[in-house]
Design brief:
The chain has 123 residues and is mainly beta. Helices cover 5% and strands 50% of the residues.
Length: 123
C-alpha cells in the first residue's frame, strides 16, 4: 500500500514557475515508476510526465516538453515536477501517480493516485 500526497500548487502569473512535490509513504517507493497527470475543468485527465524507478527513463507530453522536468529522490520517497514558463493552458489539478512501469503510467494503468493539487496560471 502506497499513499501519495501532493503539495506546491498555487496561483502564478504566466511565465512563472512552480515546483510540485509528491511524498510517498506506506510502501516501497523505489519499486514504482512515478508520474504526473493533470485535469483541467471540463476536460479529461491527461498524462504529463513519468519517470522510471531508477530515473533512467523519462517521458513527457508534447505540450510540456522543454518546460517541465520530472525528478525523484528515492531516499526521500518524493517525486517532483518543476514547471517553468507556465501558461494559462497549464491550469489544472495536478495529481501524482504510481505504477509498475512508465509504460503503465503513460497508459493510465495506475496503482496509486494522490489527491491532487491546484495549479492556476493567470494571464
Amino acid at each position: 500500500q502506497v499513499q501519495l500526497a501532493e503539495s506546491g500548487g498555487g496561483l502564478v502569473q504566466a511565465g512563472g514557475s512552480l515546483r510540485l512535490s509528491c511524498a510517498a509513504s506506506g510502501g516501497t517507493f523505489r519499486s514504482y515508476a512515478m508520474g504526473w497527470f493533470r485535469q483541467a475543468p471540463g476536460k479529461e485527465r491527461e498524462f504529463v510526465a513519468a519517470m522510471s524507478w531508477d530515473g533512467r527513463g523519462t517521458y513527457y507530453a508534447d505540450s510540456v516538453k522543454g518546460r517541465f522536468t520530472i525528478s525523484r529522490d528515492n531516499a526521500k520517497n518524493t517525486v517532483y515536477l518543476q514547471m517553468n514558463s507556465l501558461e494559462p493552458e497549464d491550469t489544472a489539478v495536478y495529481s501524482c501517480a504510481a505504477a509498475t512501469t512508465t509504460r503503465f503510467v503513460r497508459a493510465g494503468r495506475i496503482d496509486y493516485w494522490g489527491q491532487g493539487t491546484q495549479v492556476t496560471v493567470s494571464s
